[in-house]
Amino acid sequence: MHFTTLLIEPPGTDSQLINLMLVPEKFHVKTAECGPVAWNQILENDPPDLVIVDTDLPLTGNVRIGAAQLLDLMSERPRWRNAPKLMLTSDSSSAIFQQSNKKSVCAAILKPYDPRRFIQEVYNCIRKQLDAHIKEVNRQHIELGTEIKNVAKMYNQNAIKGRLKGILNSLERHFKFEEEFMLQHYYPDLDVHQKGHRQIFAKAKELIDEICHRDQVITGDKIDLIIENVFDGVEDDKKYIAFLYDLLESLTNHITTANPISCAGN
Ligand SMILES: [Fe+2]
Ligand SMILES: [Fe+2]
């Protein structure tokens, strides 16, 4: 699995060093050398797993965009809002230190920094992001399961039809959510998982269309068929969640081994 990073950093030794540190760690690093270039990348692209922003960006030329404006732009864009940001700064009085946890700033590091501390913070930010993804997948599974089971308790036929169509939309959104993450991170079983999603969705749509377009009473058997079909994907999802937890554990191990605490407490 790979992680993507947008590094907003002027060209020079710092930028080269960060690339040298991250590339062997299997990060895909995209670099923006100044505020205006970063601004365009934010407007045109999907967010990466981590944004690294140097607050000492050069403010030259006609269009002057600094780190604070970039943070504002990202916080205004729904897809970028929650992407974790790691700030690098040479100014200890910088407002950025007061902004930690605001605007999704996961860490702020004062320059010059220890490369081990830098890598540790990078992994820490990625781990938080992955943890949030796992929680969201689990939340959507519970919500979807509850929605479907609640239909089985309903009596009003028109209300059931309306709710079933809503479930189909939720299912589509959920599959898209999982697949986008898998695609972005090179999940090894993406093809099989995607095929499973398509089969489940096609079958659920067929069953729901049949129920909604017929003028017959909706029986519990029909609802049970939909429930069975949707829960057919549970095994593939268990595999995916297990993969994410393994990854989370490997990141946690990386953090603890990257900077061991000595007995002297140094
Ligand atoms: Fe899935
Ligand atoms: Fe799922």
- What's the name of the CATH homologous superfamily of the largest domain? Hemerythrin-like
- Write down the CATH topology of the largest domain: Four Helix Bundle (Hemerythrin (Met), subunit A)
Question: What's the overall average pLDDT, rounded?
Answer: 84
Uncertain residue segments: 258-266
Count of beta strands: 5
Number of domains: 2
Order of helices and strands: EHEHEHHEEHHHHH
For the terminal residues, how far apart are their CA atoms? 33 Å
CATH architecture descriptor name of the largest domain? Up-down Bundle
Helix and strand content put the structural class at alpha/beta
What sort of overall outline do the alpha carbons produce when their principal axes are compared? elongated
| Tally of DSSP helical segments | 9
CATH C-level name of the largest domain: Mainly Alpha
- Strand order, largest beta sheet: 2-1-3-4-5
Biggest sheet architecture = 5 strands, parallel
Question: Helix share of residues?
Answer: 55-70%
Structural description of this entry:
The chain is an alpha/beta fold and 266 residues long. It is 61% helix and 11% strand. The protein is built from 9 helices and 5 strands, in the order βαβαβααββααααα. α2 packs parallel to α3 (67-76) and α7 packs antiparallel against α8 (220-231). Residues 258-266 have low confidence and may be disordered. The site of one fe (ii) ion has 6 residues, from α7 and α9.
